[in-house]
Model the fold of this input.
Amino acid sequence: MKLSSKSIYVFIAMCYSLFVPASLSAEEPLRLGVAGVSHDHIYEVVQHIGKGDFTLVGVAKRNDTLRKNNPLTGLVDTSLFFADLTEMIDRTQPEAVIVYEPIYDHLSIVEICAPRGVHVMVEKPLAVNNEQARQMAQLAARHQIHLLTNYETTWYPTLDLLHRSFPELVGEITRIQVFDGHQGPIELGCRKEFLAWLTDPVLNGGGAVIDFGCYGANLATWLFQGERPLSVSALFKQQKPGLYPKVDDDATILLEYPTATVQILASWNWPINRKDMHVYGSTGYIYQHTATEMEIYSSPSQEKATVVAESLSSPYDNPFHYLKAVVRNQIQPQPYDRSSLENNLLVVEILQAAIESNRTGQRIYLNP
Done:
């Protein structure tokens, strides 16, 4: 039986009943496994090793060269590296696995983790297409695990402040512009192991549209509390075909909502690194500059106020604190939270519609 994304989420919320093992107190570090080492975001693990956020119990990577030479080499005992994910899980018993593999492989990892009751957090986006996303969601529901998606912007204090205060600051949202990207993964010097699949239309699902378009879709779904766009339109470019011959390196996506328009500008061609957003409303305007700074313009005075957002408190300040709190039943992901399964099923649907719109030159209308 196939379930809709909403049905899957409701089923998970109703049947989830996994308890923290008696041998683990709420204060003990999360028992964390790592699946894959090719994604450059694995440096998040490197930065948090030894801080008490988690105990790294095992790392799985089939490629022999990568398993012996990766960012965790020298930081983790060699006995904790495994060629096989199944063996790693069965021998080390992680509570959760965080994934740093090609997006196409997310499904196969959930297929291994879910029947063993191991929770999963993947790097954004959830999946390369709707079919894989739905299969992953069904596995999570059937085996009662949490399936979360990690975005860098989830841990931005400015976005948390914006979300809590935008009705008061800007009124009803009428337009959002989301800018995400950088000069390009090759130009930034990403590792060759990362580039090998990041620039592959099958393993990554696309180029800049997948790598950075997902941020805007995720944030719009969050700000509009899960409201589905009426339609999706998109235009992709290959501005550097010599560097990125197989995928787009620039994507413009337009989401039509009943009362608002969202423009997602995702690119490997920005002259600077950026993850910023403009939110326009009936009574004001917010420009979220960075993770910590934003500007607020109020009408009719047109006065500008610069705001520095306060640091987020645990467990909402980084993915490891959040993952532990979810796994240990200290918090329950809410519908359309940025990390939630329901939000990210819709993100994948939006991205697939954008790819179809670019291919056909037509606006794609989403089913209600």
Summary: Confidence is low (pLDDT under 50) at residues 8-23.
